[in-house]
Amino acid sequence: MRRYIKPSLIVLIAGVFSGAGYSADNNNEAVSKPPLLKVLSYNVNGLPPPIKKGKAPLYQRIAEVLRERRIAGTQPHVVLLQEAFDKRTAQIAETTGYKYVFKGPGRRDRSKKGTVHWTEATRKGYTQFKNPQKFTGSGLYILSDFPLHDAHYRTFDSDMCAGIDCLSNKAIQFVRLEVPFSTEPVDIINSHFNSRGSAKAPGRITLRMHQKQTDVLHDVLSQFRRGNPIVVAGDFNTKQDKRYAYFRSQIGLEDAGEICLSINSSCQLGEGTIKEEILYKTNDKQFYEGSGNTQLKPVWIGRNFNELLDGKPLSDHLGYEVHYRLTTND
To answer: What is the pTM of this model?
Structure first.
C-alpha cells in the first residue's frame, strides 16, 4: 500500500531514527557486499495538454520500465521526478510499487509572498494578463522504497522566477530517508530550477533568478540538515558556466559526476553513458556529502530511459541514476 507523505508542519526531531538497522528482507544485496543506495533523478517532460498532446503512452512506458526493474530486483530505491505536471504522470508514482510517495506543492500551494507569483517585470514583459497565477504545480515527486520522514517543501518566492518558468510553482522538496542498511538517515532533496533559453526571458534576468533559487537551496540546507549524509538531485539547469560555479559555491557538496570520473575513482559508467552527459553538458545533476559517521561514494552512474517508443523519446531528458556505497566508521 502506498503512503502519500504530507509536508511536515513541525520542527525536526533529533533522534527519530534511533535503532534503524539493516534488514536482509529489505535489501538482499547487502548480505554479500557493501550496501548501495540507488537514486534516480528523471525529468519526465510531463507538460500538460494542450501544451503537449499524445504523451500518455510515454508515461506508461516509463512506469513499465520501473515495474520491470522491480521484478528483476534492480529498481532504484529512490526516484526523484521533475516536470510531472500532467495528471497522467501520476501513474509513475501509483503503479511502480513504491510504498512511500511525497508529492511537491500544487498550483495554489506557496511558502510566502503568495498573492501573485510573477514579478512585476515578468508580468509586463511576458503576459497580458493583469494578475496571472500559476498554471501548474511544481511537477515534483519523491518515490521511495524506504520510509520518508520530516517531509518539507519550499516554493520559490514571487521574485524568484523569470519568463515562462513562472507559470509553474517550482520548489524544493526535502525528506529524511530511513535507510534500513544505515545507522543514520540520508537526507534527500529534489528540485527543478529556472531554465535559460526556454524561459523566453533575457539572460541576465534568468541568471539572477537562478542565483536567487540557489540561495533558497542554501537556506534549506542550513535550516533542515542535521549532519546526516545527503543527496541533492534534480534538474538544476546548471549547464551554463556562471550558473554552475555559483551553484557549487553556495551548496558546497560533491558533484557525483566529477567524483565518478576522477583519476583514482573505481566508479563505473552505465552502458551507453557518455562522460560529458554526467558532467557539464547536462542540466540533470546529483550532488552529495557524507557525515562524520557514514560515508557516501558513487560507484556507478548511468544515463538511462534512452529508448524510443514509436520513434519518440520517452522524455527530452535522460534519467540520471547514481548508486552510492554507504560505509560506516564502525
So the answer is: 0.87
